[in-house]
Amino acid sequence: MNSGGNENMSYRSLYISKNFNLFNRCVGLPIQYRNAVALDNIRFVQTKAAKEDVLNRYKEKLEKKMKEEGAESIEKLQEKYKDKIEKTKIELNRMDPLTDLEEYERKATKNGHKVTKLRSPRSPEAPVKPYKVLDDFLKLEKIKDLSPDQVEFLWRARFQEKENVLVAVIPRDIYQKLYTNARENPSFILPLPKEEEGVEIHFIQWAFPGPNTTHCMFTSLAEYKLHKEYAKPHTTLMFHHDISDDKDIVLMNGAVEQDANITLPETQLLVMNLQRFYGALAESPASIRRLQLLKDFTSGNENFSLDVVIQEAQSLEN
């Protein structure tokens, strides 16, 4: 909405008018005094001219906002929006974990690791297919009176003859933890060891297309960074929780794309680490550390470390 955009502009204007500062350049002073004065002015003290220049540039917008909010002065307006100004500052300074991975990729290339061949993106004009629900695989009416073991048998049999598929039956309590963490941390990265390429990074995205369906998509980070929203996932997992309340199980199925540069065993390793990082295993110091990495990635925390992610993914500790 336009009003939201104007408010953001106002918050940024307030932030600039409050914090726009200049170094004292100490022109004409001997070098030793210039250094001393520079250190003394490390707090970026505003000059009167600089402050007036900023206020003049945003005067009309600030006065309009003052009138809308009934504020008596700019200082009163600043005080009113103090919390939102601080929030804006945090957002402006937030780290982008994906950008932080570029250094790791440069090192890998420098060390002679081969780069996996990239696939072409999906076409923006391609029609979006409707997502599949549990009833597309097993008719709910026919399984409603079956036991969990009988449902599991039918579920696994449904995909027995298919290639490059992943199938699982997950206890509801374990899935609930996975689901909660996915909601709070809808994207992440996972490493995949490669014999010739070293470690290949994959981007994880969660989606919630329906009330009883959750998707988890795996895309090579290189393809995601190149094609963004048009990158094609090499693997998509579908979680169906239609019968979780009645039978205490969640059904999962997934498939590896035929043209993907990844094998089924490699995908299974990614899925195993997906489970470990999203806390689906029992509580332990290792799972707590992995959950913290999830949160640091989501928040853009500067303490997030890809090296630590790789270390935790390769650790045998659960």
UniProtKB/TrEMBL annotation:
One matching Pfam family: ATP11
BP term (GO), one: mitochondrial proton-transporting ATP synthase complex assembly
UniProt keyword Calcium present: no
Coiled-coil region: 48-91
Assigned protein family: Belongs to the ATP11 family.
Compartments it resides in: Mitochondrion
Keyword entries, A-Z: Coiled coil, Mitochondrion, Transit peptide
A Gene Ontology cellular-component term: mitochondrion
PANTHER family, per database record: ATP SYNTHASE MITOCHONDRIAL F1 COMPLEX ASSEMBLY FACTOR 1, CHAPERONE ATP11
Source species of the chain: Komagataella pastoris (Yeast)
InterPro entries cross-referenced by the UniProt entry: ATP11
Keyword Mitochondrion: yes
Name listed for the protein in its UniProt record: BA75_01724T0
